[in-house]
Each structure stands twice: as structure tokens, then as C-alpha cells.
Amino acid sequence: MTRVDKELAYLREHKGAVIERWHAKIRKAYPGYYEGASVLLETERYFEYLISLHIPKEQHEILSKAPEWAKRLVEHNIPLHHILRSHHYWRNAMNEVLAQNRELDPVSTLLLLNELESRMQLYEETVCHIFLELTNARMTEQERAITQLHDDRLNLIGKMAASMAHEIRNPLTSIKGFLKLIRESMTHEDDSKIYRYLNVVENEFENIHMQITGLLSFSKKRVIEEPFVHVTPRQLLDSVVSLLNPRFLNENVNLTVELLEGELLTIQKVAVQQVISNVINNGLDALSRIKHDKEMGIRGYMRNDAYVIEFSNNGPAIAPEIQLTLFEPFVTDKVEGTGLGLAICKTIMQKNNGGISFISADDRTTFTLTFQINEQSEA
User: Fold this and answer.
1) Per-residue pLDDT reduced to its tens digit, 204-214
2) In what residue span(s) does the Histidine kinase domain sit (predicted)?
3) CA 70 to chain centre
């Protein structure tokens, strides 16, 4: 007999007690996961592998079944830590059974446990390696499916945007033409109220035009590609602020504007104005949730080779759970929001050799538009 034969024979004789102890521990830790005859069958096979010391662990047939077992774990969404905990419970169960016999030699018992530990580790490493490979493959496939779904949704939006532009721009063009005719046919003696009404209608017309331009950034087949033009920051901002001025007044928001003059931006003016309109409106929406003094500041300045425009407000912070994905489509914390506004803004800014970013804290949120002066070119 070898030095551990007696201990090994005792362990084999008490196979049922070992398995029962392991099963009790694993069921207590993870109720509902390890029930049924198939689990017990696999458990008996594993026990035979452990005590078959006459078969080198690397050559045991159970290793060929490790992929099947790992696949089953993945299919049943069993976490990796279950495998590690199971190893621990096997060690405890065998220790407890061997400790019941005080006639066993402690040194031989320790030698046996070391050999059993070595076999457990090999099987655990094999299963964990395959488990991780299968899990990574599944995650890659899921990411591919999510990406495809995401792309399909964007393509659908693009088709809807192109269709909408075709259906809406034609009547808008007619409306704009008739507004021009009305204005040209009026005399100075006509009611000044009519002039004011015409100004309101024309301003709203421009707002609708900007909204359509923004949505078209998702369309691969743009109806009209807007040209790049040279504008100053003041020219870019003034028309947007004037359109939104009634909202600033109605909602008691104090607006301050500080712009560094003298720079020229080469951009798609209407598209970028849509970005500015979206950012300002989002800020006003945030300010509507506070009762104290409402403030919004717009600041423009040069930073290295870029012109930067900051839009800050003292409203509440953006929800932390959406900050990392705020510029992705369909991400929003508004009840009736589509989650497309900032995604459109990001697309427009990228097309205009710029960028959009933000920082948000409890007392202030700032969105930053960056325009690369040296990289801008006419298209």
C-alpha cells in the first residue's frame, strides 16, 4: 500500500457522505440552481475523477467533458463565482469526512488532500477557461445584435427624416414665398401690428427650418447639403437668441452673453444654429425645475486653435446614470423626450470639424461647443 491508500479507501467508502455534504452546502448558498438527477450524476463523476489517483489528472476522461459542462453553465446563466465556490465546498466536505476518523494518519491525510486539491484546481481552471471563452463569445454576439438593432433604428430615422423633409419643405417653401409677397405688398401706412405678426411667423418659420435641418443629419440621403459659410460668433448667436427671447422673458431667466469678437467661423450656419437652439432650450428646460433666481450665461473665447462657446445654467445636475451616454440616440431623462436632440447635435458638430461636451454638477451645468479654426474649410 502507498502512504495515502488507507485515507483514499476511507474517502471512497464515504463517497455518499462527501457528496451529501457538498450538495447541502451548494444548495444553501444557491437555492434552486443545483437540483435534479443530472446534477447528482455529474457530481458522482467528479468525485470519481478526484479519487482516481491512479489515472494522471491530465489524462482523465472528465476533462474532455469540461466543454460540455461549461456550456451548460453558460446556457443556464450560472455565474463564474459558483464554480469557485463549488471548489471551496468540495474541499470542506472532504476535510470534514476525513476528520471524522481519528485513526487516519494526519500527514498522510494532508498528502491526500494536497493531491485532491491539485486535481480540483486543474478541472476548475479548465472549466473556467472554457466558461470565459463561451461567455465572451456570447457577449460579442449580443453586442453585434445590439449594434445591428441600433443601426437599423438610425437607418429608419434617416428614411423618416428624408421623407419628412420632402413632405414639409415643399409647403414651407410656398409659405415663405407668400410671406415675402405679403411683406412686399404692404405700405408704410398699414397696421404696425401686421408687421409684428409677420415677424413672429417668419421667426417660427426659421425655427421649423432649423429643426428639419437637424433631423436630416440622420439621413444618409440628404435632400439638400447645406454649404459652409463664414460667420462671426455674434452673427451665429444673435438670431437664435432673438428667436428664444420670448421664452427667456416668460420664464424669468437672466441671460448674459460675453463673446470674443473678431473671429470667423466656417460652418453650416443653419445646422449649427440648430445645435445652439437645442442646447439653450435644454438649459431652459432644466431651469424650469428650480424656484430660485434662474441664470444662463453664454461665453465665447479662443482656446489654442479653437473657438469655444460655453452655455451654462444654474439648474439641477444631469442625472448621473445617463451622463456617460448622453450623446447617444434615444438617451433622455425627459418624460416626453425622444433622446435624439443631443445625438443630432453631436453629428452636426462632427460634420463641422467641431465637438460638443458638458460638465454637470449640482449647482451648474455647462455645455461646450468647440470649433477648430485651422481645420475648418469650405465644402
Assistant:
1) 777 777 667 66
2) 163-375
3) 29
